Amino acid sequence: MTAFDFDQITDRRGTMSLKYDFARARGVREDALPLWVADMDFPTAPCVTEALHRAVDHGIFGYTDVDAGDPENDYVWAIRSWYRERFHYEVQPDWLVCTPGVVFAIVQAIRACTAPGDRVLIQQPVYYPFFDEIRLNGRTPVSSDLVLRDGRYEIDFEDFERKAADPGVKLFLLCNPHNPGGRSWTREELIRLGEICLREGVTVLSDEIHSDFVFSGHTHQVFAGIRRDFELNTITCTAPTKTFNLAGLQISNIFIASPALRRRFLREVDAAGYSQPNVMGLIACRAAYEGGAEWLEALKLYLRANIDYVRAYVDDRIPGITAIDSEATYLVWLDCRGLGLSVDELEDLVQNGARLWLDSGRIFGKSGEGFQRINCACPRSVLERAMDQLRSAVEALRK
Ligand SMILES: Cc1ncc(COP(=O)(O)O)c(C=O)c1O
Question: Ligand 1: residues whose CB is within 6 Å?
Fold first, then answer.
C-alpha cells in the first residue's frame, strides 16, 4: 500500500487533452480507448500541484528566466541535485539551456550541428520526430536499424560504424533509454557508440527524457557522464515532463558542456525566436525535483506492474502477439507480426476490432511495421479493459 493512489480514474475528456480530445480531428473513432501519446493518466506529484497553486495565487505571470550560471540559483540547484543523486552525474550550472521541449531542442541541435543536405544518424524503430524533424529541416535521416534478437533490441555495431563513417553524417540522435524498443543501453554499448562517433567526427545528441523510468535490474547511464571526451561531444536532452506528467507545461533542460557547441545551439534558439521559459514549467520542474522522489518511486512500482500485466496477458492469452520487455519507459512495444496481417489490416484490427487508439509501429520507421506501441501509464483497470478488447478482436479474426 502506498500513499499515492494510481488506481483512481481521472476524467481527462474536455481538458484540451491531446490524448483524449482529438480523436475525430485525427481520424480515429471516438470510442477508441486512448493509449497512444506518451503522457500519463495520473495527476502529477502532490508537491508539484501545491507549488503551482502557490504560483497561481501570486497571480503575476510575467517574463521569467533562470540564471543558469549561478550555482546558488534554486532551479539550477534542483536540477543538479536530481542528476547527482539519481545518476551520479555532475551538471555544471553554465551548461544548462532551458527550452520548451526536447523536440524543440533536437531541431536546434540539427540546425546547429549540420548544414542543409547533411546526414543525421538514427536507430529505427525510434521516436518518430527524430526522422521527421531531420527531413523537415532539409537534412537526410540515415538509420542504423536496431536488430531484434531473442525479444530484445540490439545494436548492429558494424552497420552503425559503416554509416557513421559516411562523411555526410554529422550528428547522431541517440534515444537513451530507447523509445519504443524499451532498451536501457548498457555502459558498454554506449561506450562503443561514443567511441565510433568521436572517431568519425559525429556529434551526439542524447535524448534522455525517459531516464527516470529505468526499472530495477537496469541502470540509466548518462551518456555524457561516461567520459569527458564524450561529454564535450554531446548535447544531453532532459526534462521533468515525462517523469512528472508535465508535458503541457513545456519545459526541458538541455546540458551542453562544450562552450563552442553551446554557443551554436544558443544561436539557433535565438533564431527560432525563443527566449524566456514558461513560468509554470519552471516552478513545476523545481518542485518535482526537490520533492517528488517518493512519488516517483511509488509510480515506478505501479508502472512496472502494469507492464508485467500486459506482457503476461499477451503471452498467455493472445496468440500471435508478443510484448518486448521494457527495461525502461512506460511504453510497451507489441510485436504483432505473428498475426499474419498486413499493416493496414493490423490498424483495422486495433482501431475497429479492438477499439483501441495505440501508436502504429509504422510511424517509427519501416522496421516498426507489424508492431504497435501501447502506453501503460494509466490505471490498471483501463489496461485490463484494453487487453480484453484486444483479445476479443484477435479471437474474432479466427472465427
Ligand atoms: C524519446 C522522446 N523524446 C522526446 C519526447 C517529447 O519531448 P517534448 O514533449 O519535450 O518535446 C518524447 C515524447 O514522447 C520522447 O519519447
Answer: 38, 101-103, 127, 175, 179, 207, 209, 239, 241, 247, 252
